[in-house]
Specification:
This protein is of the alpha/beta class. It contains seven helices and 13 strands. Strands 1, 2, 3, 4, 6, 7, 8, 9, 10, 11 and 12 form an eleven-stranded mixed β-sheet that branches. Strands 5-13 form a two-stranded antiparallel sheet. Strand 9 and strand 10 form a beta hairpin. Helix 1 packs across helix 4. The longest helix is centred in the C-terminal third of the chain and has 16 residues.
Length: 294
């Protein structure tokens, strides 16, 4: 069994102008972006390749601002491109389509260069070193299951507004379902703009889009994407999301998804007021020696 494992970083949401975009916003004391720390943690966990999913139109700028820095690290770096016109045979891009097709389509863009077990993360989320270690250990196991890293809800909240989280149901250590709650604050959620609030336990596991997957996903993903296009190709802002694809695979019994629990605190800049807190937290980790040589 190959020991090669790959990290896929979803970064196609970046625009052609980098100013103010949180994916490459300087967070570390040396001007590093959050994804620099994710790649560092991945290397430490034993990942052997990183694939950045971007758009052709930002390739030059991305490689100049981000890629050159990452390419100095001891990990193979490749690029995959999410483009609107990358559609299965028989499908035509609608003239009014401007929005990307979603995270499932972004992962599908890797189908020609990822042949080994792989993890998927967002470019602008800090996941913590122990999460990468758990996923790496899982991906090296000789089985066909997938995995997802769940975070304690209380470790993913901000004091500066609502967050949207996928609330996970777990049965016998396996992911059973993910329910999107789009307005969560202080471990409560509302579905009617605040008229009624429902409690969520602080240790409720939520998805932050950190998946451990295998190359057999790609034909399944293509099938799901075709079904999505059949239904919504002419809906301009529709997106095909990876949690929905995985949930369908679970429901139909095609795949089992092991639930891994991260005890790390997740960090991200959901609101501009969050940045100072994230900078301070990561700065302390660097000062404590967690990221020597980054």
């Amino acid at each position: 069994m190959s020991k090669d494992i790959t990290l896929v970083v979803l970064a196609a949401g970046m625009g052609s102008r980098f100013g103010g975009l949180k994916q490459i916003e300087p967070i570390g004391p040396g001007g590093e972006a959050i994804l620099d720390f994710s790649v560092y943690d991945a290397i430490k966990a034993g990942f052997t390749k990183v694939v950045f999913v971007i758009k052709h139109e930002i390739e030059k700028d991305f490689k100049e601002i981000v890629g050159k820095r990452i390419e100095k690290q001891p990990i193979k770096v490749e690029y995959a491109f999410q483009e609107l016109n990358d559609l299965p045979e028989g499908y035509t891009l609608p003239a009014d389509r401007a929005k990307p097709w979603g995270t499932a389509h972004a992962i599908l863009a890797c189908r020609e260069i990822v042949k080994e077990p792989f993890a998927v993360i967002n470019a602008d989320d800090y996941y913590g070193s122990s999460a990468f270690a758990k996923v790496a250990e899982f991906l090296r196991q000789d089985n066909d299951d997938y995995c997802m890293v769940g975070y304690r809800l209380e470790n993913t909240l901000t004091e500066n507004g609502y967050v949207s989280r996928g609330v996970c149901e777990v049965v016998d250590g396996k992911l059973s379902s993910v329910t999107e709650r789009t307005k969560i604050a202080n471990c409560k959620y509302t579905e009617d703009d605040g008229a009624t609030w429902h409690d969520l336990a602080p240790d409720t596991l939520v998805s932050m889009n950190f998946w451990g997957l295998r190359a057999d996903l790609f034909p399944l993903l293509e099938k799901s994407f075709k079904a999505f296009l059949d239904e919504k190709i002419n809906v301009p802002k529709s997106e095909c999301y990876i949690p929905k694809v995985i949930s369908d695979l679970i429901e139909t019994g095609v795949k089992k998804v092991q639930m891994l629990t991260a005890e790390d605190k997740w960090y991200g800049v959901t609101y501009k007021e969050d940045k100072e807190m994230v900078v301070n937290a990561i700065g302390k980790m660097v000062a404590d020696g967690m990221y020597n040589g980054i």
